[in-house]
Amino acid sequence: MTAAGGEVEPGLYDISAELYHQDPIPGGSLSSTGLRRLTDCPARFKHFLDNPEPYKPAYEFGTAAHTVVLGDGPELIVVDAKRWDTDETKAKVAAIRAAGNVPLKPEARKRIDDMAEALARHAEAADLLQPGSGIAEQSAFWPDEHGTWNRARFDWLSDDLIDYKTTRSVNPDAISRAVWEHGYHQQDAHYRRIAVELGLVSPRAAFKFIFQEKEPPYLVQVVELDFPARAIGAERNLRAAHTYRLCQAIGEWPAYSDTTLHISLPPWAEKKAIEEIS
Questions:
Q1: How is the chain split into domains, by residue range?
Q2: Reported pTM
Q3: How confident is the model over 138-185, as pLDDT tens digits?
Q4: Which of 173, 187, 271, 278 is the 20 to 30 Å CA partner of 101?
Q5: DSSP assignment of 166-189
Q6: What is the CATH T-level fold of the domain 11-277, as seen in this structure?
Q7: CB-CB contact of 65 with 213 (8 Å)
Q8: Residue 204 contacts residue 160 (beta carbons within 8 Å)
């Protein structure tokens, strides 16, 4: 990832997810997740920077689903044991994880295969991920006009940007809430900017999310965010990047407030209370 002089070269790299998440950029780079944490609170960003997130089973299921659907990722190894809490099975599972692979219970593997079959029956989603139409799990690194390095890992890079997400529900209202709660509008803006700046896609390229439910019947929904959502995401990213540079310069990563806050009820709660007494 470096030039002859040892400097990092902007571009697209086929590297492991582990190396990407370790952040190979000297001095650090901003990921979409990092920008979202900065938007919430600089102190939270700094905590996770210094204390990488511990293992969570839900992450492994998502990783395994990505591997099957996108055809790229770690090896999936089924551990057919009645109990996973015995010393023998725990040692086997730990060894699989240590080797960079994903251990799965038989029922989890069956569920993921069923999800892949359901997605293959969804005409638009299947067409977007048609083998040979793009490349999976590619990492991009790019410095902005301030010299701040940014990074992104594209699920599927073709003429458009495709991101696959497993979720509880693909009901449009549920997806809208998930976009806001998880900051997917910021991810859209961040990934799109990096891809365009590196010349990987046209400025008119689409960013499409493929959402799929994790329980039967494994419903699938392809989604594009509208312009206001993307604009809000881009603005949040710019403010988060400014906060990042400021905190780096002063060496302080503040929380929400050092003094007493006066908190109101959410607008919807106030409206409901007024309706109840009117």
A1: 11-277
A2: 0.90
A3: 999 999 999 999 999 999 999 999 999 999 999 999 999 999 999 999
A4: 187
A5: EES---HHHHHHHHHHHTHHHHHH
A6: Lambda Exonuclease; Chain A (3.90.320)
A7: no
A8: no
